[in-house]
């Protein structure tokens, strides 16, 4: 059975291209973290960088910011907490809510990891002018907002 002609190709699919870039980037970050002796994964880095940006976020907000479900977020947080990179404390306004903080050890780790990750991102963006990068960021933000429920 012959397929009808279509304009759809993977190289035009925003989803395919975004997912492929993400996989390539995460693989590269994981390799760099391992080679540098930094004991975290790219997934853990994406969690910690949220705290690097704004320490003391509620665990639920971190789940939203990293697009993780609450179970995955709790597992990720527990692993980082057991290794001394974060501390989870009850919220003063709601004891059921846990606020997440980078520890001093977590901050030291992030100092090193952030230099590494920024270097990899700079390499990925090499030769792409800032105008095109900003358009790409805007398109990805808009697509995420379109799908956010």
Explain the overall architecture.
The protein is mainly α. It has a single domain (15-147), classed as Orthogonal Bundle (Arc Repressor Mutant, subunit A). The protein has helices at 14-35, 42-53, 59-65, 70-82, 104-125, 130-147, and strands spanning 57-58, 86-90, 98-102. The protein has a 3-stranded antiparallel β-sheet with strand order 1-3-2. A hairpin with a 7-residue loop joins strand 2 (86-90) and strand 3. Helix 1 (14-35) packs across helix 5, helix 2 crosses helix 5 and helix 3 (59-65) packs across helix 4. It is globular, with a radius of gyration of 18 Å. The model has no long low-confidence stretch (mean pLDDT 92).
Which tags fit this structure?
single chain; 149 residues; mainly alpha; Arc Repressor Mutant, subunit A; 3-stranded antiparallel beta sheet; 6 helices; 3 strands
Shape: globular
Order of helices and strands: HHEHHEEHH
CATH-defined topology = Arc Repressor Mutant, subunit A
Instruction: Please report which band the strand proportion falls in: under 5%, 5-15%, 15-25%, 25-35%, 35-45% or over 45%.
Output: 5-15%
Residue-averaged pLDDT, rounded? 92
Query: Biggest sheet: strands, sense, closure?
Result: 3 strands, antiparallel
How many helical stretches?
A: 6
Helix vs. strand class:
mainly alpha
Shape-level CATH architecture = Orthogonal Bundle
**Share of helical residues:** 55-70%
**Alpha carbon gyration radius:** 18 Å
